[in-house]
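Dear colleague,

Thank you for sharing your sequence with our group. We've completed the structure prediction you requested, and as agreed, I am returning the results in plain text so they can be pasted directly into your records. Please verify that the sequence below matches your submission; if there's any discrepancy, let me know and we will rerun it promptly.
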Amino acid sequence: MFRNISEKITNQLLRTDVIEYDDFEIYQFGLEQMLATALNILTTIILGIVVGEFWEGILFVFAFMMLRTYAGGYHSSTPLRCYLLTASIIAVVLSVIKYVRIDSFICIVLLIISSVIILVLTPVESKNKPLDSIECVVYRRKAVTIWCIETMSAVTFMAIGFKGIAISIVMAFMVLGISLIVGIIQAEFE
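Please find the predicted structure tokens below.
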């Protein structure tokens, strides 16, 4: 989706001797990912404002992205599909947070179920990001550490009465759990 823009910027960096030719692909890929991330953040901000759940949207995306980086999971076949799926998920999650009454008991049950899925399946590799045995250990350790921090945060926020924050984190866990399951299924058919 941002390939042409990132290529043009990287070509300009190459022409002005800011980067070396050998680093072209690295910079081009990095710029492409940065632009995609910026679009996802902008989309989250807009959807959060429209639905009236701005901070919950930001927190959901932050919690999800931090854990997803190391846990892995489903990958769309194109950047456009990835963006559309991400925007749809954010819209659904924000709508659930706003319009569905989730009491503390349900929130804890969802936290436990999604946590079990995450802890059992992490990391899930993809054909675009295969992992060797050392990477599996490192990614798992980092994912579990992030999961622990996020879980303690969710439980603490729920205990002190900030249930919206806790639900945002739990929703990130639920979406990640689904992504891990779908990622495993996806790998079976590749």
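Summary note from our side: The two ends are 23 Å apart (CA to CA).

Kind regards,
the structure core
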